[in-house]
Input
Amino acid sequence: MNQNTEAEILAMIQDPATRDTGFLLLMNTYQKQLYWHIRRLVVCHEDAEDILQETFILVYNHIATFKGESRLYTWLYRIATNECNRHFRNKDFRLKREELLTEHTSELAVGPELENSEDIIRKFQQAILLLPNKQRIVFNLRYYDELSYEDIAQILQTSVGTLRTSYHFAFEKIKKYLVDHD
Output
């Protein structure tokens, strides 16, 4: 999304007469990409839907605090990522990983056209799921969402150098997992 459209959405939200219309436009614009960002982190569809809903509630309640120091989408990603991290803490996600590995990773398969590759895809997803939360978030934002390190730094409020290191370690762990489980 370009910055002009972001500015238009924000202008609509700031005007009491068009606030709800602007917020619906914001949701329609970002819902799909935020859902998939969340889904790749928490894996389970139901959890992703709940976190997406919580994210938009927080955005609606706190949009007035958005200062425009970052792009709107990086602010939205930060809120969604923080909600995922809250989910990991509240649900003791580390204990659920084994269950998620067996029950839900097939849900994330790319599609039936890659049926011969389904085992590779499942192993790749398992390797990602086994990463520490921060590395998994960095890897997903860079690999799947194709965000720049600068945008990820704004989302996670950390340095680009730290992110490059996290991504490198995540990539190496995934590569090792795939080699070891071939």
Notes: The domain at 3-180 is CATH 1.10.1740.10 (Rna Polymerase Sigma Factor; Chain: A).
